[in-house]
Design goal:
Distance between the termini: 13 Å
Strand content: 15-25%
CATH architecture of the largest domain: Up-down Bundle
CATH topology of the largest domain: Butyryl-CoA Dehydrogenase, subunit A, domain 3
CATH superfamily of the largest domain: Butyryl-CoA Dehydrogenase, subunit A, domain 3
Number of domains: 3
Largest sheet: 7 strands, mixed
Helix content: 40-55%
């Protein structure tokens, strides 16, 4: 098992870093935070024009024809720069359409994702603790074969710019993924914001018309959840790495008692702990991503990566904020964004206690330990 990046992956990381460095500057990020949408459309267009948005989509639909590992390399760079664009939501919804959707739906959706003209979102969470169990939201099929969705989804991201949402629901034959028009009758949105100031919504479906994606047999929802959890882990790895990089720059430049703060032993210990957490996050992420790319049994690998991103990721952003002293909580200084992103990611699809509970359930059911 080789966790070194391939030449293609290194090229993607370098290109993504170049795009984010030039477009997602601190000044630009402040400007976007004060905007009505809080989405950087200029950056989104640049990601599309460079081919990064469609990196994991088939070439026949304008994509790059690569895989999820390349997408996660892109998401890691987004996390480093805490850039306000809905990459994982749009690209993973499109990936599910590509994997399970009809030819006509793929032809309708995928090119517009690759060229940046369409936003998509994903609704997996509901109100109450996340357990990974079957959704309370339900899906029903009538005698004519038409599907409807009834229930609630919590904190669905980017509903103000995405008109289609891929949601999980429970049908009579098993869990299912359904594509819902957020402007359709029977859909109500209550707009709110997340910890990192991203606009999201609590969405209520009252017999809303929907399109089934794949089969309602319990296979499609776990497929998507695995990939979303690893996407969050990739972003969190980037968030933590970016926070440490900022801390190193600050500590080398700030002096106390006539010498740089970076030379103090207690500070070194804090950053050493960050390094250990980031390495654990990196290894578990890429092991799980490798198993997906090879079509292997995932076992516990995804949840282990998710737990490290949730638990270790929070430790990293807290430590890096702490070593900045008062500057760490000054919203004019950029490192606070890493703290907010780290907290938000750690709370998405359950926190560390939820991750451990689900891991325990997997082990109790005889799932092989793979990480």
């Amino acid at each position: 098992m080789d966790f070194n990046f391939s030449e293609e992956q290194e090229a993607i990381r370098a290109l993504a870093d170049e795009v984010f460095t030039s477009k997602a500057t601190i000044e630009r990020t402040k400007e976007i935070e004060l905007s009505a949408e809080r989405v950087d459309r200029e950056l989104w267009r640049e990601l599309a024009s460079t081919g990064l948005l469609g990196i994991a989509l088939p070439e026949e639909f304008g994509g790059g024809g690569l895989g999820l590992s390349e997408l996660y390399a892109l998401l890691e760079q987004q996390g480093r720069h805490v850039a306000a664009v809905p990459i994982w939501e749009t690209t993973l919804a499109a990936s599910a359409v590509n994997e399970f959707g009809s030819d006509s739906l793929r032809a309708e959706i995928l090119p517009s994702v690759a060229d940046g003209s369409r936003f998509l979102t994903i609704g997996l969470e509901e109100f109450g603790p996340y357990t990974g169990g079957d959704p309370l939201t339900t899906a029903e099929q009538d005698a004519d074969g038409n599907w409807t969705v009834t229930g609630e989804k919590a904190v669905v991201p980017m509903t103000h710019v995405a008109n289609l949402a891929l949601v999980s629901a429970t049908a009579s034959t098993g869990t299912a993924l359904l594509l819902v028009d957020l402007n359709a009758e029977g859909v109500t949105l209550e707009q709110t914001q997340s910890t990192n100031w991203e606009i999201c919504a609590n969405v209520t479906f009252a017999g809303a018309p929907a399109q089934l994606i794949g089969a309602a047999d319990g296979t499609t929802v776990p497929w998507l959840i695995d990939r979303v959890e690893l996407a969050l882990a990739a972003i969190q790895w980037g968030v933590g790495s970016g926070a440490v990089a900022q801390a190193v720059t600050y500590l080398n430049g700030r002096k106390q008692f006539g010498r740089p703060l970076a030379t103090f032993q207690a500070v070194n210990h804090q950053l050493a702990d960050c390094y250990i957490d980031l390495e654990a996050m990196r290894v578990t992420l890429w092991q799980a991503a490798w198993r997906i790319s090879e079509g292997l049994d995932l076992g516990t690998s995804v949840l282990v990566a998710k737990w490290w991103a949730t638990d270790g990721g929070q430790r990293v952003v807290h430590r890096t904020t702490h070593v900045h002293g008062g500057m760490g909580v000054d919203t004019d200084y950029p490192v606070h964004r890493h703290l907010l992103w780290g907290k938000q990611i750690a709370a998405t699809l359950g926190g560390s206690s939820s991750d451990l509970a689900r891991l325990g359930a997997q082990l109790a059911s005889g799932v092989e330990v793979l990480a």
